[in-house]
Amino acid sequence: QVQLVEYGGGLVQAGGSLRLSCAASGLTFRSVAVGWFRQAPGKEREFVAVVSRGGSITIVADSVKGRFTISRDNAKNTGSLQMNSLKPEDTAVYYCAADYNIGTSQRSDGKKYDYWGQGTQVTVSS
User: Fold this and answer.
1) Fewer CB within 10 A of the terminal residue: the chain, N end or C end?
2) What is the model's pLDDT at position 20?
3) Tens-digit pLDDT profile for residues 25-66
4) Longest distance between any two alpha carbons in the chain, whole Å
5) 54 near 31, Cβ under 8 Å?
6) In angstroms, rounded to a whole number, what is the distance separating the alpha carbons of residues 85 and 76?
């Protein structure tokens, strides 16, 4: 019933930008925190960013701080990840995730999220 669908990925040159979106259905979007994670080939899943259910609190990983911005539009049941100054190291499958109960110490832990999208590929060429 719950569905999260990411879109907006693609191929971009280093230094370019992409905006990822996460369309949610089957849940009370305004009541979930929305996180973004990524997984590169041969690497573990990595936390990227999270936004609180009201949108007032945002946290981004140090590796993308200053380049990525997370946001949400509760009226449209959509989360977004704006990615600027992309680097080849950002190449990965990007996933959005949601959960009703994420504590402050759990926001970066993917195992704590109950709902996941299927991911969208982001490839950054050098």
Assistant:
1) N
2) 98
3) 999 999 999 999 999 999 999 999 999 998 999 999 999 999
4) 40
5) no
6) 27
Q: 84 by DSSP, 3-state: which?
A: coil
Q: What is the spatial distance between Cα 57 and Cα 76, in angstroms, rounded to a whole number?
A: 19
Is residue 106 predicted with pLDDT exceeding 90? no
Of 58, 45, 54, the residue nearest 112 (C-alpha):
45
Secondary structure of residue 76 in the 3-state scheme: helix
Provide the CB-side half-sphere exposure for 79 (13 A, CA). Answer: 34
DSSP class of 32: S
Note whether 14 and 116 are within 8 A (CB): no
Q: Please write the tens of the pLDDT for every residue from 11-27.
A: 999 999 999 999 999 99
CB–CB of 40/119 below 8 Å? no
Q: What DSSP designation does 55 have?
A: S
